[in-house]
Amino acid sequence: MSYPNVVYGDYGDEKITSASGTAAVRIGGLPLGTPMVLPDGREYVHAYTQANSVRVGRLAVQKAVAGTSINIAVAGTTADTIGSTDVRLTMPATTLVTIADQYAEGYLCIDNNTGEGYTYKIKASNTIAAAGTATFTLYPNDPIKVALANGTTTCTIRENEFYAVIERAAGTTAVGIPAGVPNVSVAASTYCWLQRKGPATLLAGGTLMTRGEPFAACTVEASFQAWRPCTASGTTDADTILSPVHQQLGYTMVAPAASTDYFIGYLQLI
Questions:
Q1: Strands 191-203 and 154-158, sheet pairing
Q2: In DSSP terms, which residues pair with 221 in a beta bridge?
Q3: How distant, in Å, are the alpha carbons of 4, 107, 155 from that of 78?
Q4: Each residue of 152-182: pLDDT tens digit?
Q5: Does residue 258 have a pLDDT over 70?
Q6: Least confident segment among 37-41, 173-177, 192-196
Q7: Which pTM was predicted?
Q8: H-helix or E-strand containing 34?
Q9: Contact assessment for residue 242 and residue 227, using Cβ atoms and an 8 Å cutoff
Q10: Which residues, at least 6 apart from 110, have a Cβ–Cβ distance to it below 8 Å?
Q11: Which segments within 50-187 are labelled E, that is strand?
């Protein structure tokens, strides 16, 4: 059991960011993913931009999968015991050197063999080199429950979904899951709040939506456009170009006057 993990903020708290030179400082020392609720019910989440800035009213998404390592064999002789909080993994040859604690607040998932199906929360990780042995430290109250088989149990590691978020690029290609929308422009290497639910000021692009209509990510810029279930081609409805990005993100409250204008939309990221 633990204490409540929701921050109850006040109006204006959603615009707070935190960075100190090149070393960003977490807002209030909060873990990534901590939710914040304002008095009117708007919901936010604590996130980090790392190398990429995110502009106000634009959709931020989970970073590209380059930081994910899949099917990593368990290494060493002490990483497999029940109750252990240190898991040693043999990294693949293609893994780039990463920064310390890149995977802090992330996840270690057991893919195959002994212990498969379990997910553990990562507290810390060391600097990892290609083909080297990396140590992932789990939270003390979330140790290994089923012993892992050295050399045969395989794992997937993934950074926290709100670590190193990026502004969604134009296009129809599937990208990382929606992280949220900042209510203020956020510089690189900065902790911030991303809105996930409630009325928000959002940038319009592509086909404009009407009041009450769903919207999705735009295909031509980092913004939002109309989304409707449409024909098999998935691109047109009455000769109007619609977003083929099948991620309904909310509903229009006040329609935009023109493309590249801002509008009021009700976000529903769950």
A1: unpaired
A2: none
A3: 34, 20, 16
A4: 788 888 889 999 999 988 776 667 789 999 9
A5: yes
A6: 173-177
A7: 0.87
A8: none
A9: yes
A10: 116, 117, 118, 119, 146, 148, 153, 154, 155
A11: 60-61, 69-74, 86-90, 107-112, 119-125, 133-138, 154-158, 166-167, 178-182
